[in-house]
Design goal:
Nucleotidyltransferase, domain 5, 8 helices, 5 strands, 15% strand
């Protein structure tokens, strides 16, 4: 058995049929939304190179994105905006994006496997959290790739709107170049104001 399917098989043995994996991208950046994805893969589907999105090259992630979206039984991808992050905090905004992604699934999962140790509320769908789940569960790994690629593409689009910040390069994370641009130009509409308090003393 592929080790990436261990947690799914535990769920299948416990009587759960459709199992989805849920993960997010973009909790840490200073700008842009947080993105979440939910994925239900066919049981034991072997996707070569499937792994935690952070361990893959950008090119490999984008190639796997196409494979996952073609072969998944169902998937959903959703954002929570920078305004929502500022209003309800990053953890709650992450959970909001996750709920939106799960609600998009055209198959209702019997169980959600979620990366991390904090449990979102998906209503009547039970949740199991897995620390480092994006490298331990096939469905969570797939979700991590969909979320990361989708968010990266969004930030590349924003780079065309706000070229002075270099979003295509750092995707909104707090690099030296990003901080330098913030000092020179100030924040733009997609910056998370609550993440900039140290910079501006707001």
């Amino acid at each position: 058995m592929n080790e990436l399917w261990k947690f799914e098989h535990i769920a299948y043995d416990d009587g759960f049929s459709f199992v989805c994996g849920v993960d997010e991208a973009g909790r840490g950046p200073l700008a842009g939304p947080v993105c979440a994805a939910a994925v239900i893969l066919p049981p034991d589907l072997d996707i070569e190179g499937l792994n935690d999105s952070k361990k893959l090259t950008d090119k490999r992630r984008r190639a796997l994105y196409d494979v996952i979206t073609e072969q998944a039984l169902a998937y959903g991808i959703a954002f929570a905006s920078e305004q929502e992050i500022d209003r309800i905090n990053i953890l709650q905004a992450t959970f909001l994006a996750m709920r939106r992604a799960v609600e998009q699934l055209r198959l209702r999962p019997a169980l959600a496997l979620v990366d991390g140790n904090r449990e979102p509320d998906f209503g009547s769908i039970p949740v199991r959290t897995i620390v480092k789940g994006d490298s331990l569960s096939a469905n969570i790994a797939a979700a991590s790739i969909l979320a990361k690629v989708t968010r990266d593409r969004f930030m590349e689009e924003q780079d065309a709107v706000y070229p002075q910040y270099g979003f295509a390069l750092h995707k909104g994370y707090g690099t030296q170049a990003h901080y330098a641009a913030l000092r020179e130009y100030g924040p733009c509409p997609i910056h998370r104001r609550t993440f900039l308090k140290k910079l501006y003393g707001e």
